[in-house]
Amino acid sequence: MLKTTLEQWQVLRSVVEQGSIAKAAEQTFKSQPAISYQLSQLQQRLGIEILNLKGRKLVLTEQGRILLEQAVFILDQWRDLEARAEALTQGERAVISLVVDSLFPKSDLFNGLKRFNLAFPNTHVHVKETVRDEGMMLLNQGNDDLYIISAPENLSVTKSAVMTVEVIPVAHKEHPIFQVPSHLREAKLKCVPMIQVVDKYHQQPNDEDNRYQDSWFFTSLSSAVDAIINQLGYGWIPISEIHQYLDNGTLCPIFDDQQMLRNSTLYLIKNQDARHDSVIHALEDALLENILPKEEHHTPLD
């Protein structure tokens, strides 16, 4: 059985923050005798002195300070718990499952999540970052709420084109490929190890397919970039993810023009059960705020 109550600790917190029983009583809409009684009961049940009177102000003893620090954490957590319960009673979702292709710019992802969290602090977003065909695999399973993934243009689901990601072949500035004349580099690349970002289902070479010869496989885009920086090979990387390395000259495009530029379109797709969910719409708007005009966020493509 607990010796003290949350209310007693909240009263102590209020007295310390306000500096007096009178001000704490005013803040908590309690009488001064009620505040004094709660403090007296708290100290009696703890068996230690937690407050001292200095002049006209009540201040914590060292023991009181240590205990209140822990109590404040518990009080804040309890307040969050009650706020979440209130949100659930009003129909606010507790969790949203978001599938995002690794090609989606991290700055847009993180800024969007921060905007959403400010508006819906009681809703958690479970982010699943995918590479290659993982997005389509998860879409087919249908267990998630919102998807921003690469998909076939003729995919027969309601979808919205979010952005076109530009991908270019790059290598470290000291890679031997740059000693080859630019017009001969395309042929030379066939002899250079390629850094590939793959999902867990495509890490082993297929006996009937030799495309994976002389390749390094990584399951995250950041690891692939690090491998290229460390001169394990060259790779096709989204420009949005390597701006700083291109700007400072650490990584260089293998070709001087746009002849080898690849474009990959990302689509936003919603689970059919989430089409009319206002919280899902809010997350969608937050993610796409700096990418598309707001009126285009919910425009479907057939």
TrEMBL record:
Signal peptide: none annotated. Residues 4-61 form the HTH lysR-type domain. Pfam families: HTH_1, LysR_substrate. This is LysR family transcriptional regulator. Keywords: DNA-binding, Transcription, Transcription regulation. InterPro entries: LysR_HTH_N (IPR000847), LysR_subst-bd (IPR005119), WH-like_DNA-bd_sf (IPR036388), WH_DNA-bd_sf (IPR036390). SUPFAM superfamilies: Periplasmic binding protein-like II (SSF53850), Winged helix' DNA-binding domain (SSF46785). Belongs to the LysR transcriptional regulatory family. GO terms for molecular function: DNA-binding transcription factor activity; transcription cis-regulatory region binding.
